[in-house]
């Protein structure tokens, strides 16, 4: 049974194959990975039964893409507990419902899947700070932990995250994020203080 990482890539491979079979041209669809699957690609510490992705494509391909997504079967992987779990693309996911910086695509990195250059699908992993910003809207206990983990990535920094999050909040349709950002900052400072204390003990 394949790992969770392999299941994520396999699901995108299956999607690319089906888009090709539907006659879509090379590079017609871009998928941007979010949610727990995106966190997993950075830290390998998260699993999920849903794959959140934002799809970018020309509207002339809309019906083909939606049809393929509706018929795409789940991919099985083995959970940490040893049971078989199915991974599905969540077709309800929509980045308009979560805070997101308008330039997130410019900072995304393409995932190499070994696909042919003729594949209609390319898959992109947003910068860890952009994934973290997308989690500010709901901000569950798990979301807070994900944000703190993502901000430990070498390409992330608190100052840049705060700047991008503040800019994203200006056009977010949900609640004002100033208090949320301040709360996350407090948790970030506490995490850093705890890490520093642990180093002192060593």
Automatic annotation (TrEMBL):
This is DUF6036 domain-containing protein. Residues 33-190 form the DUF6036 domain. It comes from the Bacteria. Pfam families: DUF6036.
């Amino acid at each position: 049974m394949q790992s969770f990482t392999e299941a994520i890539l396999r699901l995108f491979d299956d999607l690319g194959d089906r888009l090709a079979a539907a006659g879509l041209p090379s590079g017609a669809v871009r998928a941007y990975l979010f949610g727990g699957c995106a966190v997993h690609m950075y830290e390998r510490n998260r699993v999920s039964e849903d794959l959140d992705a934002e799809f970018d494509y020309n509207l002339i391909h809309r019906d083909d893409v939606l049809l393929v997504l509706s018929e795409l079967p789940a991919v099985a992987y083995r959970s940490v507990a040893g049971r078989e779990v199915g991974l599905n693309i969540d077709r309800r996911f929509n980045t308009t419902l979560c805070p997101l910086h308008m330039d997130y695509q410019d900072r995304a990195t393409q995932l190499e899947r070994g696909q042919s250059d003729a594949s209609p699908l390319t898959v992109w992993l947003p910068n860890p700070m952009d994934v973290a910003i997308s989690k500010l809207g709901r901000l569950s206990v798990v979301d807070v932990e994900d944000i703190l983990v993502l901000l430990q990535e070498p390409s992330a920094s608190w100052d840049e995250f705060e700047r991008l999050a503040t800019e994203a909040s200006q056009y977010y349709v949900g609640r004002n994020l100033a208090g949320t950002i301040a709360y996350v900052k407090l948790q970030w400072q506490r995490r850093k203080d705890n890490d520093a204390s642990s180093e002192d003990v060593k």
